[in-house]
Amino acid sequence: MMSEMLLVGNRTHLYGVAQGWGQLPNHISYGYTHGVCVDAHDNVYVFNTSKDAVIVFDRDGHFLKSWGSQFEGGAHGFYLHRDDDGQEFFYMTDVERGLMVKTTLDGEVLLEVGAPDRPDLYDAERCYIPTDVCVAPNGDIYVADGYGQSHVHQYDAEGSYIRTFGGKGSGPGRVTEPHGISINLRGAEPEVYVADRRNHRIQAFTLDGEHKYFVDHDLDLPCSFYFYGDEIYIPDLNSRVTILDNDNRLITHIGEDQQAYKQDGWPNLAKSYYRPDKFSSPHGVCVDSRGDVYVVEWISDGRVTKLIRQA
Asked: Which residues are in coiled coils (predicted)?
């Protein structure tokens, strides 16, 4: 007799845990799993710090291929952008090499952008360590220097520098560890959303880098974003995934474990601690065309969870 599926969520957002989803071939293993994306065919791409930095599955969890050895050790931000012609591209950040890289879905490198030529911001002591990237509707690229000097740098589609905004702090327009970045298209005009992680909030900017407002409730070390319809899915590093509605109000936390991040040795805990329906250190999230959710966690040998939408 089959055991009942483990469920997480609430009445309107209920998910079943797809235990055992995404088995790796024997010759491949994960490093830290930092990012996850789905393409137009619901293929799932996991970005991790192993030599197989991009690992590709179909929606049922069958392994398809891997690539990206140049990202070994540095794989971090992972963003899939679909242009007006329907073509899809990855934009990725490498924290070891200090690069933003644009590729095809098969890994062909199309653009590389390093640190901006800003000697007033960067020198031997003030490092540039880009953690995430996103793309606006007009093709402009925004790169978050989350582990460096807490700036956001804007480029045009060809990688030419436009401007910098942010900078370390807690007031309007200032950010501390801008770990994730994305474009909010749910309102009257596009906005740049920054996961202002160490301030435990989201900060919204205009496309020109002007502060608009904060979202500073129901978040606990927000890492990044995934927009699905009118909703936003946020991996809170402190052991849960948060879903907000179109007004940025809480719908639910899924997989919450408020004890996990308080454990000695976190995030790399004994395997006996982890439970399939609880998260420990969510770092990336995405949602496929059917509403199923994929979560990757900041754990040294990786962790990937698929949640199947029930309601």
From this structure: none
Tokens coding 212: 């608009």
Contacts of 138 (CB under 8 A, 6+ apart): 157, 207
Say how far residue 164 (Cα) sits from the centre of its chain.
Answer: 21
For every residue of 251-283, DSSP letters joined together read: EEEES--TTGGGSTTTTS--TTT--TT--S-EE
DSSP codes of every residue in 115-178:
S-S-TTT-SSSS-----EEEE-TTS-EEEE-TTTT-EEEEE-TT--EEEEEE-BSSSTT-BS-E
Residue type, 243: I
The pTM of this model reads 0.97
Question: Tell me, which fold does domain 7-309 have in CATH?
Answer: Neuraminidase (2.120.10)
User: What ranges do the domains of the chain cover?
Assistant: 7-309
The two structure tokens encoding residue 140: 């402009």
Give the tens place of pLDDT for each residue, 130-167: 999 999 999 999 999 999 999 999 999 999 999 999 99
Find out whether 58 and 43 touch, Cβ atoms under 8 Å.
yes
* Average pLDDT over all residues of the chain: 97
- Return contacts of 260-269, CB within 8 angstroms, 24+ apart: 261/237, 267/297, 267/298, 267/299, 267/300, 268/299, 268/300
